[in-house]
Design a protein that fits this description.
Belongs to the zinc-containing alcohol dehydrogenase family. The protein has 399 residues and is of the alpha/beta class. Helix content is 28%, strand content 22%. The chain contains 16 helices and 17 strands. The strands form 4 sheets. Strands 3, 4, 5, 8, 9, 16 and 17 form a 7-stranded mixed beta sheet that branches. α6 packs across α7. The radius of gyration is 20 Å and the shape is globular.
Amino acid sequence: MTNDNRGVVYVGDGKVEVRTIGYPKMEDPRGRRIEHGVILKVVSTNICGSDQHMVRGRTTAPEGLVLGHEITGEVIEKGRDVENLALGDLVSVPFNVACGRCRSCQEQHTGVCLNVNPDRAGGAYGYVDMGGWVGGQSEYALVPYADFNLLRFPDRDRAMEKIRDLTCLSDILPTGFHGAVSAGVAPGRTVYIAGAGPVGLAAAASARLLGAAVVIVGDVNPRRLQHAKAQGFEIADLSLDTPLVDQIAALLGEPEVDCAVDAVGFEARGHGREGARSEAPATVLNALMEVTRVAGHIGIPGLYVTEDPGAVDGAAKLGNLSVRFGLGWAKSHAFHTGQTPVMKYNRQLMQAILWDRINIAEVVNVQVIDLDQAPEGYGEFDAGVPKKFVLDPHGLVPA
């Protein structure tokens, strides 16, 4: 078995490189031997908008961090305590690292596991302050607590035929689905999704799967809006001076929606021709409160951080935003925040993919590239292209 490994490494603001990295060991980040893990040969691993926050220098991520928390792979080695997986199994890896044993995990809150990160609740692969677990934008990766964490695909050949869709199960599809569910999307509801990036489009596709009557996607990026429109969603162009509430009224005949989802997060930009040129981190949250009906729900899968070194003001550097919470209180809104507990949804979404109930790869415009093309993929994604870049380290994804 090879002991070679290469991965995508954050090397400074705006820059990543593909470097030789250590081959995975059956050890946790503190060097303790584990027997509950597996080593995967990575079949596909995706570039995520959350990775871009670190690469832009908007977090305290250290240089040298191996990136990547969206992983699909083949089990090639397993510890003695792994009972339910076999060598050769093809599996999806939830981005949450979870022990399966603590109170949070037992209550399906795997995004805030209590045992995989000594500094705070919740762990993730290749992410700042999330426990030190090595990222999976690499040729080989370690997954701990494998029996609990991994979703095995029941038919390998069928899964490989659908791998462009199934690769989205590690994060963006469950995250979008969680946003839609926590926003109260149900048959016949009207839905507004802030953000036409991959998570926003995954939320829109999820809302459609859940039976929404109409799904409106808003953004300031014309290319992403054009792609969203081509996928059958209504759009709101936030680079225009026409207020969002007026655009919604023009579409629906009333200025409010039943459900809203924030798929943008803390690097939000203002609305209108002038506003869209600058960052305004509370814009999306305030806009959603304005356009969501009384007693409506707002799902917030978009990332917000406790520290943002590149923020526009001192308060935002500490995660403090000028949110009109009084408006939300007056309208009896329900807000749901936090990391998505991927395991709560990934099995049912796998079946939706396998049985052609959702075409997520088409919706988010998956583009498969080689591992060595990762720096170019990061650059294009940061420039706002309407694509979801999927890395193929071993050339295994069918043409």
